Amino acid sequence: MKKAIFGGTFDPIHVGHLHIAYEALYNLNLDKVIFMPSGNPPHKMDRVVTAAKLRYKMVEAAIQKEPLFELSDYEINNSSVSYTYKTMEQFHYLEPETDWYFLVGVDSLMDLKKWKNVHIILQHCKLAVFSRPGYANEDIIEMKKFIEETYKQEIIYLEMPILDISSTVIKKKMTLNRQVDYLLPCGVQEIINNYHIYK
Q1: Which fold, 2-194?
Q2: Which residue pairs, CB below 8 angstroms and at least 24 apart, start in 52-58?
Q3: Which NCBIfam families does the record cross-reference, listed alphabetically (predicted)?
Q4: Full-prediction pTM beyond 0.90?
């Protein structure tokens, strides 16, 4: 089996996230993509993040019609800080025969040397990096080479069409009472409205 974990705050999940998941699914020939809403991400401790259970509900609604997508509550049920190396240790322990991948944006690749216990992450999975706006291709290739040489592990670069959508922009549009339905997967807007999120 080949499975990828797609972590993120998903605050809210949007069509750009689904685009990335499908591109990874097809390009890596995956059996499953597991969406992993973050619990207490160390790099976002200074930001206000929507309650984990509501972010979980939004992801659940967004992926409910795709049988190759799954949802995990592992990190949101963990009260400690959500470190990727701990997540990958746990999933590798539960399914040691699975070929694990971890999906991250190129911004994470650029900051990877600041992550905790990178060597443990790369022991338990292959890192698959997707494009994001604002990064020069030569800078990405240079950092990819640096990480590979430093940790002796291959980094997969998924070159895919970029959908320039962000959760931050969506929330800003909502504060201006602008329409965002076209940026959100089916069912997500209804949850936002029902629970008065982002008001």
Answers
A1: Rossmann fold (3.40.50)
A2: 52/76, 54/191, 54/195, 54/197, 55/9, 55/10, 55/11, 55/12, 55/13, 57/191, 57/195, 58/10, 58/12, 58/13, 58/188, 58/191, 58/192
A3: cyt_tran_rel (TIGR00125), nicotinate (nicotinamide) nucleotide adenylyltransferase (TIGR00482), PRK00071.1-3 (NF000840)
A4: yes
